[in-house]
Design a protein that fits this description.
Blueprint lengths: L11 E2 L17 H6 L17 H17 L3 E5 L14 H11 L3 E7 L5 H4 L11 E6 L3 H13 L4 E6 L42 E5 L11 H14 L2 E6 L3 E3 L8 E7 L2 E6 L5 H7 L3 E5 L10 E3 L2 H4 L2 E2 L2 E2 L6
Parallel strand pairs: 1-2, 2-3, 3-4, 4-5, 5-6, 6-7
Antiparallel strand pairs: 8-12, 9-10, 10-11, 11-12, 13-14
Bound molecules: iron/sulfur cluster.
């Protein structure tokens, strides 16, 4: 996966522009901001966003032809360096995106936002029940954002609704989402984010959940129980689940180790080496090396997390790789 994208769940990434303003805890360590700094200052309420030439905008036309030739549908994540529903979008850029989407019927466009409150007013006039090749998603990093963003997302019809729970910063219960009522007291959004498993999945619900931990400078650990809970909720509702990664931090049990042996303390951080476990590859890779370790949860309970880096931490959740996509 990922012809020109390092993201596992997409074939391509496309950016309408570069630039954004931080809006929630998931943005605290925004990788896009650090990456864009090499090309100028494009982040913040006063920054000028970076725009692109026709050559860049023509790329998806080529991807569309390739997908058609292959007889496949290819997914395009839009945008990794911006938010499509940002009210500071460069003039005309969003309209150009809608035109491009209409010209590329063999591509499924995944529009992910942290600003679902802007979706309705920024969609094109001919949106109807949703363009057949647009999947709409919101970032959900904790329960507060789930409660805030999911009901708004579900107010807009789309062929696929999805959640990107990355970086996952806390537990999320998708079955306790509050409905939205209009001024007349009518419910305009839904009481459940996930479908009743006995009913067919339709446009009212979430169809896909992507979960991942954080990586990079300042990465915050993801408790494996938070990911397990979302996996279990999706399994129970028949919703596609994709586990992208643990992130820089992983619990010892997830890499098959039994624990760690304290080696030293430095700059207020505790370091340890991985002790006996069942996961041969990890022991060969990581055994004998010292890694930062900590109990990051308020109650100082298990599991202890170890910072082995995103690549070493891998993407197995309880030994299973989850790559489901809505079918
Ligand atoms: S919305 Fe996305 S791109 Fe914008 S600041 Fe937040 S993490 Fe970065």
């Amino acid at each position: 996966m990922g012809e020109n994208s390092k993201i596992e769940w997409t074939h391509h990434t496309f950016n309408t522009w570069w630039g954004c303003v931080k809006v929630s805890p998931a943005c605290d360590n925004c990788y896009a901001e650090s990456l864009s700094k090499r090309f100028g200052d494009h982040w913040g309420p006063k920054a000028e966003y970076r725009t692109f030439s026709d050559k860049h905008w023509n790329e998806p036309l080529r991807w569309n032809r390739a997908a058609e030739k292959a007889g496949e549908r290819h997914r395009v994540f839009c945008a990794s360096m911006a938010d499509v529903f940002d009210n500071r979008a460069p003039e005309g850029a969003r309209e150009r995106l809608w035109a491009l989407i209409r010209q590329t019927p063999h591509l499924d466009w995944l529009l992910l936002t942290k600003r679902p409150q802007n979706i309705a007013e920024m969609l094109p006039e001919d949106w109807g029940d949703g363009y057949p090749n647009v999947w709409l998603g919101v970032t959900v990093e904790n329960q507060k954002e789930a409660d805030r963003r999911i009901p708004i997302l579900l107010q807009t019809r789309a062929v696929v609704h999805f959640l990107s729970c990355e970086p996952l910063l806390g537990p999320v219960d998708l079955n306790c989402i509050e409905p939205i009522y209009n001024g007349s007291g009518e419910m305009t959004s839904f009481t459940r984010a996930l479908p009743d498993p006995s009913a067919p999945i339709d446009k009212h619900y979430i169809h896909w959940v992507i979960v991942g931990g954080e990586s990079g400078p300042g990465a915050r650990p993801m408790h494996p129980d938070w990911a397990r809970s979302l996996r279990n909720q999706c399994r129970a509702a028949g919703v596609a689940f994709h586990f992208k990664q643990h992130g820089d931090w992983v619990s010892y049990d997830q890499i098959g180790a039994n624990g760690w042996d304290f080696t030293h303390e430095h700059d207020g951080k505790r370091y340890g080496v991985i002790s006996q476990g069942d996961f041969g590859r990890m022991e060969r890779l990581l055994g004998g090396q010292a890694f930062e370790t900590r109990y990051p949860w308020d109650d100082q309970t298990n599991p202890c997390m170890v910072r082995v880096g995103k690549k070493n931490a891998g993407r197995l959740l309880d030994g299973v790789e989850w790559n489901e996509v809505p079918g």
